[in-house]
Design brief:
heterodimer, A: alpha/beta, Rossmann fold, 6-stranded mixed beta sheet, 22 strands, B: 362 residues, mainly alpha, ABC transporter involved in vitamin B12 uptake, BtuC, 15 helices, globular, ABC transporter permease (chain B)
């Protein structure tokens, strides 16, 4: 493969942002017909490099050669016309347009009387067929598709313009295992057609499953380029974080063994028959002081929906909740906050950060909301508080006056965690706090969870990665099809497989009554077929998994 | 090094959202000075010590615009808009005039205060209606306040029974026409109110929360911010400030003409906010920017009159000035400007084909 000329060759790329060198002399090569993984922690410069290649950022030094020609793209459109197409992590499609319009947006087939819609849809179908998606009705709104299918549509869109280089920035972060397999099939077939694919993912398993070569960045610098099969996981992670892996895995917190006497210990928070129509069936729940309670289940199992009820993000239709043994009615997030419950959302961009505010403003926001606008937190107190959490959670860059939108995902997540910790919660609900973030930040967040619990904070921990849930939780609530199907008291013998078994076993019993319509699946023709296998959430994460 | 420092300093200054507003005010004043070198001259009236001059007139005229622009900047920051301010001005003016006319006793301070209090109360009620429609009923701000914009003029007509209503009350008149410390009272009142609002908004967390809900309402709710209360506050404040503007505006002539008072003033307010550099999409706001915008509009209005531009060409002239200003403020237009002056990219010598990559350690 390497005897051909690279389609993309970036040399000695430097990009400087005010006060930071985002990229410092980075080299990158991409050959036709390869899948090349770009590796690095959050903030290592992966996204910056991609944006340099696609013309979103102007480079301050170095050269970019695409197909033998030195280029300096001035925007994504420019890059597209040179055959470089990008599918971003947050899908950039228009959900209320049709599938066909989305595929062809900006490249509609034009006839004598403006757009020829028939030809446009035909072209869209052809582009979709390239990915085996020709069964989709291009006249349906995009919003009728699942996130995974939308991702594939986004790729079709990229391919519709005959891309020679396809950039996939964390395309798998919201897909389940079957969907990832589907995506990988598409990627392999594109590779075999000679397309050069640049792939970014935080899932090491996926990197090893799909990529041919990888380039590692750390702190904006080039760390090396290797054929994937010649670099083992330990070395890869060590190169990404610049530390030995063993030091890191001890950080991630040890397995929590449950020693609580549940009979005598009165719960901090209890729910009885808590339900909301269309999102979660009546559920009983106890949460004890200083306990880490895991919610395990597949995407769409109701784990997020249940958590939202606890905080008041959604209002329960029925059921009652008690806190410290007293009845409480939590109608909205402000109520939840007042009762010293905090909820960190899985939807960081839409429900978490306030993009145009600074790190400091984002961090103090919940605390300020709780006090009310008339009682501002004195600036000195703000600064101390923010400095404390920036240090404790290792937020990088550590400038509190930077706009949060300019931070990497993992660091945004840490700022949000700081926001909730600042409210001094008794019950902290973390919905996918480690999704889409790198090994180092992940370990730091896991460590923070353990430490919080040791200090008496109750934590509800929700994650798609069962290993993570099993390692951190004392008890695990298992959810499926919008109901709680079991509770596992954690112990040394419990593994992720136990949880999978509980989910799978329930599937067999419940097969007869599986015609429960669930809100998410209505939009998702794919999930009505039994493609969501239990392995979906056993995606292992290499950093925290012991190598055999 | 020092040149680099200077250019960044200059760039910072130019990046101030209302920088071009200040430049435009100065340019308009310059234009007037070119026509009449004595335009900026200020004289002191020997009998009462008051300042007299064109600039004083501009300040006086800017007072009502300042009021509604500041209110509007807060409403826009929440991601909303208040189209009803012009009509609220008319209602407020109508209430005050009818009250004073019915009360008789010209010159009584009590009557003047009663008129002001009642006018502001009625304005606040209209603000409550706007706020309820937006915050609780969930109508779009554009629609809610459009309803109020139409209804407001109707209410004003009902109050005045469709007649232009005049009253005489020296205390009330003093607000719009009086002088204090040599400056127009109306401008001093406006500045004091602007400063109070600015302090309240920025010294409390109100400003932060308004920006938060303007930027991302969902995330703000999840952070425990209750948007309804904030929206109510903002729409009531906007209406009360419009009420103040109405009092200022009818006080000048002591007559309310319900079809003219505050007519199309909502557009001036929105323009002032935009000139101040705020985005109509909500989010960041700047009271200082709104003040600059309001002063610019007052200056522009006075300049048009001073230059003797025919009344039929007035809207076009105003539009041109504002379009130019918006273009200068646009990042994209500035981007073109900067790009064109960027030195060409220096192409390095082609490097040997074999890259320097190291091989994998086993």
């Amino acid at each position: 493969m390497t005897d051909t000329l690279p389609i993309v060759e970036m040399r000695d790329i430097s990009i400087e942002f005010p006060g930071v060198k985002a990229l410092d002399g980075v080299d990158f090569r991409l050959f036709p017909g390869e899948i090349h993984a770009l590796m690095g922690e959050n903030g290592a410069g992966k996204s910056t490099l991609i944006k340099a290649l696609t013309g979103v950022y102007r480079i301050d030094g170095g050269s970019i050669v695409v197909a033998g020609q030195e280029r300096q793209f001035t925007g994504t459109r420019d890059a597209q016309s040179a055959g470089v197409s990008t599918v971003y992590q947050e899908i950039n499609l228009v959900t209320n347009l049709t599938i066909g319009e989305n595929v062809m947006l900006g490249h509609e087939v034009r006839g004598a009387f403006g757009i020829n819609w028939r030809a446009t849809h035909a072209a869209a179908t052809r582009a979709l067929a390239g990915l085996g998606l020709d069964y989709l009705d291009t006249h349906m709104p995009l919003s009728t598709l699942s996130i995974a299918m939308q991702q594939l549509v986004a790729i079709s869109r990229a391919m519709a313009i005959k891309a020679k280089v396809l950039i996939l920035d964390e395309p798998t972060s919201s897909l389940d295992a079957a969907e990832v397999d589907g995506l990988f099939r598409v990627m392999r077939s594109l590779r075999d057609q000679g397309v050069a694919i640049l792939f970014v993912s935080h899932f090491l398993d996926q990197i090893y499953a799909i990529s041919d070569r990888l380039t590692i960045l750390r702190n904006g610098r080039w760390e090396g380029e290797y054929p994937t099969r010649e670099l083992d996981r330990h070395s890869l992670i060590s190169k990404m974080i610049g530390k030995d892996l063993r030091a890191l895995s001890s950080l991630g917190g040890s397995r929590r063994v449950d020693q609580r006497d549940y009979e005598s210990d009165a719960p901090l928070f209890a729910a009885k028959g808590l339900a909301r129509r269309g999102s979660i069936e009546p559920t009983d729940l106890d949460i004890h002081r200083g306990e880490v309670l895991g919610f395990a289940g597949l995407l769409g199992s109701g784990r997020t929906e249940l958590a939202r009820l606890l905080y008041g993000a959604d209002r329960a239709d029925e059921g009652e909740t008690t806190l410290h043994g007293k009845r409480v009615d939590i109608k909205n997030p402000a109520d939840g906050l007042e009762k010293r419950i905090a909820f960190s959302t899985e939807n960081r961009r839409d429900e978490g950060i306030i993009a145009d505010l600074t790190v400091r403003e984002n961090m103090i926001l919940a605390m300020q909301a709780e006090r009310g606008w008339a009682k501002p937190i004195p600036r000195k107190e703000q600064d101390e508080l923010v400095a404390k959490y920036i240090t404790a959670l290792n937020v990088r860059p550590s400038d509190p006056n930077r706009l949060i939108k300019n931070l990497s995902g993992g660091n945004q997540q840490k700022v949000l965690l700081g926001r909730w910790l600042a409210t001094n919660p008794e019950l902290l609900i973390l919905d996918e706090p480690t999704r889409g973030i790198d090994v180092g930040a992940k370990a730091e967040i896991q460590e923070a969870v353990v430490e919080l619990a040791e200090n008496g904070v109750s934590v509800v921990f929700i994650s798609s990665e069962l290993e993570e849930v099993v390692r951190l939780s004392e008890r695990i609530v298992v959810l499926k099809d919008h109901q709680k199907i079991g509770e596992i008291v954690n112990g040394p013998e419990i593994t992720a497989q136990h949880v999978v078994d509980v989910i799978a076993a329930h599937g067999v019993e419940a097969a007869a009554e599986s015609d429960i319509i669930d809100a998410e699946d209505e939009h998702d023709p794919d999930t009505s077929t039994p493609t969501r296998t239990p392995q979906a959430s056993t995606r292992a994460y290499a950093a925290t998994e012991e190598e055999s | 090094m020092s040149t680099a420092a200077r250019t960044t300093w200059l760039r910072e200054l130019i990046r101030k959202p209302y920088f071009w507003g200040v430049v435009a005010i100065l340019a308009l004043l310059l234009l007037n000075v070119l026509k009449d070198p004595n335009y900026l001259a200020l004289t002191v009236n020997p009998t009462n010590g008051n300042l007299v001059g064109n600039v004083v007139d501009i300040l006086r005229a800017s007072a009502p615009i300042l009021m509604i622009a500041v209110g509007m900047s807060l409403v826009i920051a929440t991601g909303g808009i208040d189209l009803s301010v012009g009509s609220v001005m008319a209602v407020s003016g109508a209430v005050a005039m009818v009250f004073m006319k019915d009360a008789g006793q010209s010159g009584s301070l009590g009557v003047a205060l009663g008129a002001i209090g009642l006018a502001l109360l009625v304005s606040a009620i209209l603000g409550v209606v706007n706020g309820v429609l937006v915050a609780y009923v969930g109508l779009q701000p554009f629609i809610s306040t459009l309803i109020m914009m139409l209804a407001g003029r109707g209410i004003a007509k009902v109050i005045t029974e469709g007649q232009n209503t005049s009253a005489s009350n020296e205390s009330f008149r003093w607000i719009a026409n009086g002088f204090m410390f040599g400056l127009p009272v109306v401008f001093l009142i406006a500045i004091v109110i602007v400063i109070i609002v600015g302090l309240v908004v920025r010294r409390s967390a109100l400003g932060l929360m308004i920006e938060a809900i303007g930027i991302n309402p969902k995330a703000s709710r999840m952070a425990g911010i209750k948007p309804s209360g904030l929206l109510m506050t903002v729409y009531i404040l906007s209406a009360v400030l419009a009420g103040v503007a109405g009092i200022m505006s009818v006080g000048t002539v002591m007559t309310v003409d319900v079809s003219r008072t505050g007519y199309q003033m909502e557009l001036d307010a929105i323009l002032a906010v935009v000139i101040g550099g705020a985005s109509l999409a909500g989010g960041k706001f700047s009271i200082g920017g709104a003040v600059v915008g309001a002063l610019l509009i007052a200056t522009l209005d006075k300049t048009i009159v001073f230059l003797g531009i025919s009344s039929s060409a007035t809207p076009a002239f105003k539009a041109i000035v504002i379009v130019v200003l918006c273009l200068l403020q646009s990042d994209r237009v500035r981007g073109w400007f900067v790009q064109r002056r960027r030195p060409p990219i220096v192409r390095p010598e082609p490097l040997p084909a074999e890259p320097k990559k190291q091989e994998v350690p086993a």
